[in-house]
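Researcher: I'd like a candidate sequence for this fold, 211 residues long. If you have to choose between options at a position, lean toward the conservative one.
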């Protein structure tokens, strides 16, 4: 009899434990962390190449005089000063080694204005520069050029020089310009004296693009 009672008590206790276990909520699992995506690496910005091209308008004033025995291309005497004012265009291309020095090739032609007094010029220049502000640079042009003077009908070669300034409309990287700019300059492509006295002064202005 004692064995039967013990068995009933044990069975009752076991069943109570099993039924009670059904009402126990399982412990919640911790949330799994979501790995964050790494931020994209910005593309590397290449520095400017230092190359540029440009072009614009040119105004030229020339004074040509030679010996009285020499005739100009139109048959008139060269004994008196032959003055001319002409207009045209200019082209240039260059390479800036750094913000202080560069090389530039220039060409201009003035086919409009006083008859038979047009000019053509080709030149290669050393271009020292000095930043005035972050967007304005002043520069000099020192080089060698060839100038064709229609009035005399001859070409003159020799030292050529000029002064100019440029306003950078883009930005600068390591001192080198990038993008558009506006320039204005004075250039004396030729001045010679002797049996043929020739003096040419020009004003030039235009836009340039720096790569």
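Model: Candidate sequence:
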């Amino acid at each position: 009899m004692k064995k039967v009672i013990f068995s009933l008590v044990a069975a009752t206790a076991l069943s109570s434990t099993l039924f009670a276990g059904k009402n126990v909520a399982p412990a919640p699992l911790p949330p799994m962390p979501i790995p964050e995506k790494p931020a994209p690496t910005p593309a590397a910005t290449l520095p400017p190449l230092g190359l540029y091209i440009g072009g614009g308008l040119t105004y030229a004033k020339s004074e040509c005089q030679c010996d009285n025995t020499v005739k100009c291309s139109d048959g008139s005497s060269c004994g008196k000063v032959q003055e001319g004012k002409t207009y045209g265009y200019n082209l240039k291309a260059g390479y800036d080694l750094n913000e202080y020095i560069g090389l530039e090739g220039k060409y201009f032609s003035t086919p409009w204005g006083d008859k038979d007094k047009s000019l053509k010029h080709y030149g290669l220049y050393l271009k020292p520069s000095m930043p005035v502000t972050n967007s304005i640079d002043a520069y000099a042009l020192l080089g060698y050029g060839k100038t064709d003077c229609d009035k005399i009908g001859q070409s003159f070669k020799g030292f050529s020089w000029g002064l100019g300034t440029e306003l950078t409309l883009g930005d600068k990287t390591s001192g080198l310009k990038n993008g558009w700019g506006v320039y204005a300059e004075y250039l004396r492509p030729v001045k010679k004296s002797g049996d043929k006295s020739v003096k040419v002064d020009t004003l030039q202005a235009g836009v340039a693009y720096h790569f």
